[in-house]
Design a protein that fits this description.
Length: 163
Amino acid sequence: MTTPPQPEDSDPSGRIQGDLSGGEASPPVPRRTVLDRPPGDRYRPTSEAAGSARAIDAAWAPLAVAVGGALAFVLLGGVMAVTAGLIVVAGLIGWLTGLLVRPPLRAAVVAFGIVVLGLLGIWLFGRMEGGVLDPIEYFAEVQGFLVPLELLVAGGLAAAASR
């Protein structure tokens, strides 16, 4: 137990010995607990290996959409000779890509690339059947204005769905 300061403990200026505050006692400051790490750190991966595994797991879904979309284009556009229906397939590819890839610009570029791969697959299928045209002439002859429309639909829906 400490005893309260006595008048004889003070110097002539009125300050208590050992007190550097200037005469009046300051209110006690509440003591804060300092943690060794932030509470949110428990939700972070524990190592770099977990982060790379999570990145690999996140890449499977867009890769599946890319492969499935390109195959759908080849089957519908090459084997079944569908032209206008590929716009719907391009929209579906764009929408699924937009749900899986962020930000909107990256999603649009990925969807655009998937449709281009599918179109090149259609052209290669045509070459296997004996076609002799290069890709630009082939699509100008077979699909015409639908090719740019497919690319715009896929990119636009991917950008819209990724917001």
